[in-house]
Fold each of these.
Amino acid sequence: MTERSDASVSAELRRLERRVRRQVDLRMAGRRVWESLPAILQILTAVAAAYAIAHWGLGHAVPLLAITVTINSLGFTRDARPVRVAESVVGILLGIALGDALALLVGRGLWQLLLVLAAVFVVGRAVSANPSFAVAAAVPSALVVMLPDPVGGPFTRSLDGLVGGVVALLVTALIPRDPRRSAARDGRALFSVLEESLGSIVDALAHADPAAADLALTRLRRTQPLVDAWGTSLDSAISIARISPWVNRHLPELRRSTRVLRGADLATRHLRTIARRSEFLVRDGRARPALAGLVSQLASGVRMLGREQDDPELAGAARADLTRLAARLDPAEVLPGAPVTDVAILLLLRPLAVDLLDASGLDPDAARALLPPVA
């Protein structure tokens, strides 16, 4: 009876686990679609414009490559910088032109297709160090060779590709995806991990809990993809803001976020060392309330720095918190007579405070001047 009961409970738990997994998958799917809506609308607008120009403006009955160039140039990539779009356009147009020219010379068939692809791959790899450039050039060149000549002649498709490329570039500048939304989302993700990690370090020092410090270290070791993602989205947003009349006014804000990203990146590196030292320090079972208080104040400054990215009215709050912290980082006053292992943690907080003050907009020399001298 007990075995059947245990089996029934296990089966119920498995069903519950599958139901939860399905719900999570559905939420993630919905989130992906929602976040992709600006890109979808941008691509649809560009496709409509490219089709209209090539079909009704130039009289091309089936402007296939005008549409495919537009879609492939814009895509769903996180990196929506105009330079990346331009690189994709150049690669695709190169493939179309080479395909048209070589098909005119050697005709169509399997060996001609292989010859064209070989030529496109060689030229693509010679022109650009980016492997995707050659691939972007090869796909439309294969279409050109395999499809019969259009009514307007062999280079009609090259003209269609040019139309699609120009439309893609114009749409990138005039109807950009919201470049700040993805940057803000990536910034929140990084600061969320930093706040959680700092909370774990505080717990470790306040309660002599090595497991909490180890948890913080585990979280901090996974921050590099978050840093890279925020950097990519900010680079993309800044590049779009430079050329887009609608987003240009946000350029100073985006550049401030770049400064904050630099400070947050340095902070994660410092905090990994602090978490590692804290885990070793509290193995003796002794709490360090003074150090916990300093890290807690640091956490408050980091939390405010993250919130300032979403709420301009909070500007200056993080700097005020971090300024007060920097003035307290005196080992002789906070940890009189403490062993060198404890003092080492405090000394690690000093450059971290300077980097975060720099991220808040304070000059680095002014930030260093706030630190008490160390005998």
Amino acid sequence: MENFSEVLSVFEEGIARDFPQRSPFFNGETLGFCRYHASNSGNYRAFSEAVCVTFDQEKHSAFFKWVHALQDCHLIKETLPPHEKVVAWIREKFLSPKA
């Protein structure tokens, strides 16, 4: 979680420094390749549920605001797998004993 928090801090600082007026990743009109793949960050809720961790949304409010905006996009809503399936996949992938 500490490393993840550091990565989010770098992300937020870079966006604030390089794009002070608005985020280049979500303009409300179109969903580009980068935004589509970054939308998988929205699975943080599934990850949190699967491995019982809590993300500090206040500490990284800019990042989570961006993720929530992405999740409201109709294309993302249509293409992301159901929450329950993501939780099950994470548990199987990361918590199941390896054979």
Amino acid sequence: MAPMGIRLSPLGIAVFCLLGVGVIYHLYAGVLSSRFASFRQKSTVDLRDLLALSIEAAELGGREVKRIREDNTLEEKSKGKTKEGANDMLTMGDLNSHRKMFYLIKNTYPHIQVNSEEHDNAEGEATIWTRNIPKDILEKVSEGKEVSAERITVWIDPLDATQEYTENLRKYVTTMVCVAVDGDPVIGVIHKPFTGYTAWGFVGEGASVAPRASYNTNSPKVIVSRSHSGTVKKFAQTAFGNNTEIIPAGGAGYKVLALLDPKDEEHEKADIYIHVTFIKKWDICAGDAILKSVGGQMTTLKGDQINYSGSEGNTGGLLASIKTDHKSLVKRLPNLEEN
């Protein structure tokens, strides 16, 4: 008797094929997934485009900040205490601005790392970049500059100076975006929602803001945080003498602009910016980039450059200056342990 053969119906053949495909997929899904992930990570980003997008994001978030303050719908609450013992406030201005800014950037460049001061569980905004590049950027940055997406970290501060925002001290409030490449601050944007003023800088390419004509570092005006101005006053006067003038102010973005010439009559002017305690990187990255783009410096109190990758905070304090011998300023600073 001839051996009995196995015959499959067309349906059986289809099922067999599907099972085979499933087994192959199961075996190679991990490999394919990693290959696709590797391919995606090799995508590049044009930094000139990212500068324009950052400005649009800061201004979009700023409109939310302004609207909620003017409507008096802040719904403020405390997130806890800062290291200086002040309330770390959160408002609807912070959250709404975060959603607009974060998702505008992520919708445009899904594969770059975006770190924001705020986090929420809201569904992603459908906001899309207009792809408009402002005229002043085109004039100052003549060509695009492609960088691998995996080298980029974007830091956003949806509302800097929240405490002052709740007190209706509007001049201190800013929204900020910073782009770091390999940890170095390259692009910075600081936007003032209540005046509509926007400052930007692109290291090695240009900036929308400029230094003032001169700075006094013999008896300087030192701008510091309102929350611990007493501590910094003693520190600064030990370094620069009893004639040192201390300017308490809110918001790191505001303090950096005080070192420049923002063409704003209500904006105080300072020669040096000092911070002696822990500070988050989304507070200072944009200002660092803008200062570097016009020849300034922002370092730790020991003179070390601040790396904008990895952890969220900078523990080494902060010294910012422009058109001065920054290293000589560092040498004049006392040890914090002595104060």
